[in-house]
Design brief:
Layout lengths: L2 H12 L5 E3 L2 E5 L3 E9 L6 E9 L11 E4 L5 H10 L8 H21 L4 H9 L3 H4 L4 H6 L6 E2 L8 E2 L4
Antiparallel strand pairs: 1-2, 2-3, 3-4, 4-5, 6-7
Length: 167
């Protein structure tokens, strides 16, 4: 399989749900949110990442391409390893197996999570369920928009330490 095979597979999975291919992105826009997906090549080899996320239409997008950024992966070691293998085109996996397994990954890890986030309320619900580590990746303008707790600045001189509220 080559890069175009992954692109075609992503299109095959996303297009029936309303996503449109625009440049390097697949995009689905509703009144409140824009969902985006892209394929990113690793700088370390013939390896790819599938990124996705959400843009809050009421907020300007700055240097980041999304307000909420995610990547297809897994907390389960074996599942994460297999996803990494499927997206590493140097791995000797027969095309039929790679295609079927990658399609299953796209449905489970991309299509399903994105299908349940359709409004700002859905997005806020997802943010409220994030771990502290995941919350660190939510941009401040999004936290302000949803009136979420902001990090408190420490009084330590010369050190950039953020103390998160515990309540």
């Amino acid at each position: 399989m080559e890069k175009n095979g992954i692109i075609n597979l992503i299109s095959e999975v996303l297009t029936p749900t309303g996503f449109k291919k625009k440049g390097i992105y697949w995009v689905l826009t509703s009144q409140e949110l824009t969902k985006t997906v892209d394929l990113q090549k690793s700088q370390f080899g013939n390896y790819y990442y599938i990124n996705y996320g959400y843009i809050i239409n009421a907020l300007p997008v700055t240097l980041s391409k999304r307000h909420i950024y995610k990547r297809i992966t897994s907390l389960d070691n074996d599942e994460r390893t297999r996803i990494d293998e499927l997206l590493n085109l140097d791995k000797n996996i027969p095309d039929e197996i790679r295609t079927q397994e990658l399609k299953n990954v796209l449905i489970k890890k991309l299509l399903h999570p994105m299908s349940i986030i359709n409004t700002e309320a859905d997005l806020l619900d997802m943010i409220n369920k994030m771990s502290q580590g995941e919350l660190n990746g939510v941009f401040l303008d999004v936290k302000k928009y949803f009136n979420l707790p902001l990090p408190e600045k420490s009084s330590n001189k010369g050190k950039h330490i953020i103390n998160w509220p515990t309540n």
